[in-house]
Design brief:
Elements: H1 21-29, H2 42-53, E1 61-64, H3 71-82, E2 91-95, E3 105-109, H4 113-137, H5 139-169, E4 172-177, E5 180-187, E6 190-191, H6 194-198, H7 202-222, H8 226-259, H9 264-289, H10 299-307, E7 310-313, E8 323-326, H11 331-335, E9 337-338, E10 341-343, E11 346-348, E12 354-355, H12 358-362, E13 366-370, H13 371-374, H14 380-390, E14 392-393, E15 415-416, E16 420-425, H15 427-436, H16 440-443, E17 446-449, E18 453-455, H17 458-474, E19 479-480, H18 482-496, E20 501-503, H19 506-527, E21 531-532, H20 534-548, H21 550-560, E22 571-572, E23 575-584, E24 587-600, E25 605-608, H22 609-612, H23 618-635, E26 644-649, H24 662-674, E27 678-679, E28 682-684, E29 687-688, E30 694-695, H25 700-714, E31 721-725, H26 736-743, E32 748-752, H27 755-763, H28 781-797
Parallel strand pairs: 1-16, 1-17, 8-13, 13-16, 19-21, 23-28, 25-26, 28-31, 31-32
Antiparallel strand pairs: 2-3, 2-7, 4-5, 5-6, 9-12, 10-11, 14-15, 18-20, 22-27, 23-24, 24-26, 29-30
Helix pairs in contact: 1-17, 4-8, 4-10, 5-7, 5-8, 8-9, 9-10, 18-20, 19-20, 24-27
Length: 802
C-alpha cells in the first residue's frame, strides 16, 4: 500500500528564514544605528535603567546571562553613557598621623583637590629646603649662637682659671689637652719631667702629691656644675634652633592655612605639621652640622616621607563617575594593599605605601565584577558585603600579613564608600547565592536578566546592523555590503536555531567579522576595495569549518570506509537511522547513528542497553522508559503488556544523553515487533511523550546536514531525506547546499507530529487509526503491533494463542 509522503514534506521556502533586506538596507544607510548599545534585550535594558537610576542602599545589580552574549560590553557601554553627565566624585588621600603613625588619616577633597594639595605640600617642602640654609646662616642667628656658646665657655674658663692660679701659687702647672686636664710640678719656672721627678727626695715628692690631690679636688668642686651648664647650653641652642625654624616656616604655613581655611581636616593637619616640620628641620640641621655626613641621608626624601600626602584617588573636574571593571577580584586588587620595603633586614612601611584597590577607584561610581571569579577568592565575598552594608571601606588585609606576624603594619582610617556594585554571573550561580546566602537578596535587589535569544524586530535588526557597522569601521574598513550583512543575520539566526530570533552571542558574530576581515585584506589587495563582502564571509566560514572539522571528518570517513555501519538505501527490520549531534569545543556537528531493536517473548520489558552498561545518561534513559508507557497506552488496553525488547545505538562507545533518539528507538522497536522493514534512505530525530506526540529537539540543523553530507558522498538518489518534529520547522536555518538539493528534489525533509506519522513514512504503509470499537484497520502497522503483543502476552502468561 503506497503512502503519499508529500503531505509531510517541507517546501524549500520553509528551510531558511526570510531576511528583511529592506530593513537592513535602511540600517546600513542610517548613521543613527552606529549609536546602538543593546540589541534587543528590552527586559535587561529596563532593569539596568531602573537599577542605575535608584541610589537607595541595597539596590546593587546582578547581571544574569551566559558568557559571550555581549552582556559585559553592553552593560559597560550603557553605564558609561548613563554617567556621562554625572557628578565627578571626590578625591581621597592619606596623610601622616603624627600622633599615631600606625593609623594614617584620610582626607577628602573636591575633584582635583587631592593633587593640588599634594603639589602645595611638595612646594612647601621645596621652600623649606631653600630657606633652611638662609635661616641658619643668618648673621643674627650666628651671633646669638656664638653668645650662648661664649657664656658657657666663660663659666668653664672661670672655673679652670681659679684652679690654675692656685696651682701656679704652689709651683704646679695645669695642662688641658683633648678634653682632659693634668698637673705637673714646676722647678725654676720649668715643668719637671717624670725622670727628674723621680730624683726628688721622698719629702718633696710627697709634698707635690698632696698639692696635686688638692688641685684635683678643687677642680672637681669647680666643675661640679659642668653637666648642668652643658645641658643649659644645649637647651638654649635648641631653643634658638627651634625659634629660628619656627620663624622660617611660619609664613610658609600661613599661606597654606589661608588657602585651606574652609577645610577643617587640612587645618587640623597643618597644625600638626608645624611642630613635626620643626622637629624634622632640627634633624636635618643636626645632620648638616656633623663633620662626617651620611651619604644615605636625603633631605628631600626625608621630608617627603613624613609630609607629602599619598593621593589614593584623583579625579579631574570634568570627569564623569568612574566605571571600573576588575577582572581579577583578589582581596588586594579590590580593597587595596599596604606595601613593604626591606631596610637593613627589617620590614618597613608607612602611609605613603598604601595602594588603592578597585573599590577606591570606583568610589562614587560603578564597579563591575565577575561573580564566579569573586567567590573563589578567600575573604573577598564576606568583606565586600560588609563594605556595602557599612558604606565604609576598611583596609583589613587578613591574607597579606601571613609570615609577617611580628612586623608592624598600618591600620588606615576607613574611607566613606558610595559605589554601586554590578555583578556578572550565570543563572545557576544567581540561584545558588539566593539559596545559600541570606544577605544576597538584601544587597543585590536588581536582577538584569539577559535573554539567550532576541526576537527579530525592526529595532533589533536596526541595532544589530549598527553594532556590526561600528565594528567594521573600527577595523579600518569602509563598509559592508547588503548581502554580507544578510549573511551575518542568517548566521545569528542559525546560532539561535530559530528563524525569528537572533542569538544573544553577538561576540561570535564579531569573531566572524574579524576572520572575514583577514580574507578581505587578502582579496582586496588586488581588487583595490575596502569593503566587507559576502565572499569574505563565506571564505571565513569555510576556513573555520576546515579548522575545527577534524573530528567530524574522521567520523564521516569511518562511515564512508564501512567501519561504522550506516545504510542509506534499501530497507531493514528493526533498524533505523537516527540523527545525533556532537558538541566538541566551540564546534557542533551532526552525524547519523544506527538504532537497532530486537523483540522476543519474555517479560523483562524494554531494556536500554546503553543504560545497562552505564553509557546512557539520565535524560536518554528517561526517553527509553517512555516507550513502555507509549506501548501500554497505545496497544495494551485490554491485555497485560508483556514483552522483552533490547534497544541500542550501535557502535557508540561514549556517554549518550538527550531524548532526541526516542522517536527513532520507538520506530525501530515497532519495526522489530511487527517485522515490517523501515526505509534506510531516511534518518529520523525527535522525542516523544507517552501519548505518541512528537516533541522538538535541539541541533536539528546540524543533524540534517550530517546525514546530508553522507548521502551526498554516496550519491543523492532523490529518495533520501530526514524526518524531524513538525515543531522544529521554525528552527530550520539550513546550509545553501542542502536547500539547493531539496529544491532539485534530490533530498527531502519531512515533518511529523505523531509517532504514527513517522511509522507511515518509514514503513511506507498506513499506521492505522483506532475505530470506535477500539480496533485498528486490518494489515495496518498498529494492527500488527497489537496482534504481536497479544500473542507474546499469551505465550508468557499462558493461554490459547499462536
Amino acid at each position: 500500500m503506497s503512502v503519499d509522503t508529500t503531505l509531510y514534506a517541507l517546501d524549500v521556502d520553509a528551510l531558511t528564514p526570510t531576511i528583511n533586506r529592506r530593513a537592513i538596507n535602511s540600517a546600513l544607510k542610517d548613521n543613527e544605528a552606529l549609536n546602538a548599545t543593546f540589541i534587543g534585550q528590552e527586559r535587561a535594558r529596563e532593569a539596568l535603567t531602573f537599577g542605575l537610576g535608584l541610589n537607595t542602599k541595597g539596590y546593587n545589580l546582578y547581571v544574569m546571562g551566559e558568557p559571550a552574549t555581549g552582556r559585559f560590553t553592553l552593560v559597560k557601554d550603557y553605564i558609561e553613557r548613563h554617567v556621562s553627565h554625572s557628578t565627578t566624585p571626590d578625591d581621597w588621600c592619606y596623610i601622616n598621623n603624627f600622633d599615631e603613625e600606625r593609623e594614617p588619616v584620610v582626607l577628602r577633597f573636591p575633584p582635583g583637590g587631592g593633587k593640588t594639595f599634594q603639589k602645595d605640600m611638595a612646594n612647601l617642602i621645596d621652600d623649606v629646603l631653600d630657606s633652611l640654609p638662609i635661616a641658619f646662616d643668618n648673621p643674627g642667628y650666628q651671633r646669638r649662637r656664638a653668645s650662648i656658646t661664649r657664656e658657657f665657655e666663660q663659666k668653664y674658663d672661670a672655673a679652670i682659671d681659679a684652679v690654675e692660679r692656685y696651682a701656679q701659687a704652689n709651683d704646679v702647672a695645669l695642662y688641658e689637652e683633648g678634653g682632659s686636664i693634668t698637673f705637673s710640678p714646676i722647678i725654676n719656672g720649668k715643668p719637671v719631667s717624670d725622670t727628674e721627678f723621680a730624683s726628688f727626695s721622698e719629702s718633696d715628692r710627697e709634698r707635690f702629691y698632696t698639692i696635686i690631690d688638692e688641685l684635683e679636688n678643687r677642680l672637681s668642686e669647680n666643675l661640679l656644675s659642668l653637666p648642668a651648664w652643658k645641658r643649659e647650653n644645649s637647651e638654649r641652642l635648641r631653643e634658638l634652633d627651634t625659634t629660628t625654624a619656627e620663624q622660617g616656616i611660619k609664613p610658609l604655613i600661613k599661606v597654606l592655612e589661608h588657602k585651606y581655611a574652609a577645610e577643617l581636616g587640612v587645618m587640623k593637619y597643618l597644625k600638626q605639621v608645624k611642630n613635626a616640620l620643626v622637629s624634622a628641620i632640627l634633624v636635618i640641621h643636626s645632620e648638616e652640622q656633623k663633620d662626617e655626613k651620611s651619604d644615605d641621608f636625603d633631605k628631600k626624601v626625608f621630608l617627603e616621607e613624613q609630609f607629602l600626602p599619598n593621593v589614593l584617588v584623583s579625579n579631574k573636574i570634568d570627569d564623569a563617575a568612574p566605571v571600573i571593571y576588575e577582572p581579577n577580584p583578589a582581596y588586594q586588587n579590590l580593597f587595596g594593599k599596604i606595601e613593604y620595603t626591606n631596610i637593613h633586614g627589617s620590614v618597613f612601611t608607612n602611609y605613603r605605601m598604601i595602594q588603592p584597590g578597585a573599590l577606591h577607584r570606583a568610589n562614587g561610581g560603578y564597579l563591575l565584577l565577575d561573580v564566579d571569579q569573586l567567590i573563589e577568592q578567600p575573604y573577598v565575598w564576606d568583606s565586600l558585603k560588609l563594605a556595602i552594608k557599612s558604606t565604609r571601606l576598611r583596609m583589613d588585609l587578613p591574607q597579606q600579613d601571613v609570615g609577617m606576624v611580628n612586623n608592624i603594619t598600618l591600620n588606615p582610617q576607613p574611607v566613606d564608600l558610595n559605589v554601586k556594585i554590578v555583578l556578572l554571573g550565570s543563572r545557576d550561580l544567581y540561584y545558588t547565592l539566593q539559596d545559600y546566602d541570606d544577605e544576597f537578596d538584601e544587597l543585590f535587589r536588581v536582577l538584569v536578566d539577559f535573554d539567550l535569544e532576541i526576537p527579530v524586530t525592526k529595532q533589533a535588526l536596526f541595532d544589530f546592523v549598527g553594532k556590526v557597522r561600528a565594528h567594521v569601521y573600527s577595523l579600518g574598513l569602509e563598509g559592508i555590503t547588503t548581502n554580507a550583512m544578510c549573511r551575518l543575520v542568517e548566521y545569528s539566526l542559525r546560532m539561535a536555531e530559530h528563524k525569528e530570533k537572533l542569538s544573544a552571542h553577538f561576540a561570535e558574530v564579531i569573531e566572524l567579522v574579524n576572520e572575514a576581515h583577514y580574507f578581505s585584506k587578502k582579496s582586496n589587495a588586488s581588487a583595490n576595495t575596502n569593503v566587507l563582502e559576502l565572499d569574505h564571509l563565506k571564505a571565513a566560514l569555510s576556513a573555520k569549518k576546515r579548522r575545527t572539522g577534524r573530528v567530524s571528518q574522521a567520523l564521516l570517513n569511518d562511515i564512508k570506509e564501512g567501519h561504522v555501519l550506516i545504510a542509506t538505501e534499501g530497507k531493514a527490520v528493526g533498524t533505523v537511522n537516527g540523527l545525533t549531534v556532537l558538541d566538541i569545543g566551540d564546534t557542533a556537528f551532526g552525524t547519523p547513528a544506527r538504532i537497532t531493536s530486537t523483540v522476543f517473548a519474555g517479560a523483562s520489558g524494554v531494556v536500554d542497553i546503553e543504560r545497562e552498561v552505564e553509557l546512557g545518561q539520565p535524560i536518554h534513559s528517561k526517553g527509553v522508559m517512555l516507550l513502555n508507557g507509549y506501548l501500554g497506552n497505545k496497544y495494551a488496553q485490554h491485555f497485560p503488556l508483556t514483552l522483552s525488547a533490547n534497544i541500542a545505538l550501535e557502535q557508540s562507545y561514549g556517554h549518550i544523553d538527550g531524548d532526541s533518539a526516542s522517536l527513532g528507538e520507538l520506530v525501530a522497536l515497532i519495526s522489530a515487533l511487527t517485522e515490517i522493514p523501515c526505509l534506510q534512505t531516511l534518518a529520523i530525530t525527535g522525542s516523544i511523550n507517552q501519548y505518541g506526540e512528537v516533541q522538538a529537539v535541539g541541533g536539528v540543523n546540524e543533524k540534517i546536514e550530517g546525514f546530508f553530507d553522507l548521502c551526498q558522498h554516496r550519491g543523492l538518489t532523490g529518495t533520501q531525506g530526514v524526518i524531524i518534529p513538525k515543531s522544529n520547522a521554525i528552527n530550520l536555518v539550513l546550509d545553501a547546499t542542502v536547500v539547493d538539493a531539496v529544491k532539485k528534489g534530490l533530498f527531502h525533509i519531512y515533518t511529523v507530529e505523531t509517532v504514527d506519522d513517522a511509522l507511515t513514512i518509514l514503513m511506507e504503509q498506513e499506521a492505522g487509526k483506532i475505530s470506535s470499537k477500539g480496533r485498528y484497520p486490518k494489515n495496518s502497522i498498529n494492527y500488527h503491533a497489537v496482534n504481536r503483543l497479544y500473542n507474546i502476552a499469551l505465550i508468557v502468561n499462558g493461554g490459547d494463542g499462536e
